[in-house]
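Records of this kind hold a single protein each, on a pair of labelled lines. Below, a sample record shows both lines together.
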Amino acid sequence: MSRPRRKKAAAPAAAPARPRASRARQRQRLIDACISALHLHGPSKTTVEKVVAIARMSPGNVRFYFDSKDAMLVASLEFLAAEFEERLLVPIAALRPRPVEALAALVDLYLGAEIASTRKVSVWYAFWGEASARQEYHDICGSRDGKFEQLVRDLIGHLIDETGSRHLDADAIALGLIGVLEMLWQGFAFQTESTIDRGEAKRRALAYLRSVFPGAFSRATGTAPAALPAGAYASAPLLALERRALFRHAWQFAGLARELAEPGDYVTLDGPSERALLVRDAGGTPHAFCNSCRQRPHALAMSRRGRFGELVSCPLHGLDYRLDGTPAGATPGGALAPL
C-alpha cells in the first residue's frame, strides 16, 4: 500500500513592492514633468500633451495616475508644499530652542537651490497668481505660507526673549525677514541658475537679521564678537569704562581743515572723555587742547566754532594763553593741556 502524499503548504504571496514602487516612480516622473511645464507655460497653458512630451511618456499614463489635468496640477502643487515642509519647516522647527542657529539655517535652506530653484520659485508664483480663482491653489499656498510665517514669528520671539530685547516687535521683525526673503525669491524667478548668486542673497538676508540682532548674528556668521547684554546700554559705570577704554585714546572727528583757515580760528568738540579746543596759531600750525580753564574746569570757548584774537582768554580768572597754548604774561598754572 502506498502512503498518501502530503500536500505542500502554499508559499506566502510576495508583497507587490516592485510594481508599487514602479507606479510611484512613474507618478513622480509625471509630477516633475508637470512642474517643468508649469515653469515654461504657467498653469493655464500647461496641457497633458506638454507634460507627457517632457516626461517622454504616453498620454494614457496621465489618465492612469490622475483623473484630470487639474488633478495633476494640484498634485504637483501638493508635492512642492510637502517638499517645503519636509526639507525646511520640519528641520527648522526642531531647532526652536536655538533660534540663532535656526534662523541662519532657515535663510540657508529657503534660498538654497533645492527649494529655491528658478523652476520651483516660478511655479509657486504661478500658482499664487491663480489662487484667487482656484480654491485648491489658495488653500495649499496659504497653508504653506501660514506655517512658514508662524515658524519665523516663533523664532524671532524666542530670540527676543533670549537676548532680553523686550523693546523689539516680533511681528514687525518677522514680517521684515519674510519680505526680504520674498524679494530675493522674486529676483530668482527672473534669472537662470547660472546667474543667481545665492551666497550674496544669503548674505543680504543675514544682514537684515544682523542689523536687528547684531551680536547674535555676528556670532552665527563668525564676523564679530558677541553683543553686550541689553542692560549694558543703560549702565552708567559701563559707559564710563567704555569711554576710558575704547574712546579716550582713539581718534575722534572734530572738524574740517577749512574751519581753521586763518590764525585764531577755532572749533570745539565735546568728546567721549574730554572737551577739546582746536585752534590755529599765528604761524599757521593747528593745535588741540583741553577746552578747560587751568584754574577751574569750565570751558574756555563755549561756541562750536569762532575766532580768537591774539590770545585765548578766561575773563573769569584773568588768565591768557597764546594761540599755541603757552601762558601769556603772569598767567599761572602752565600751558593749556594738549590733546
About this structure: The CA atoms of residues 5 and 23 lie 42 Å apart. The first strand starts at residue 265 and ends at 270. Residues 257-322 form a domain with the Rieske Iron-sulfur Protein fold (CATH 2.102.10.10).
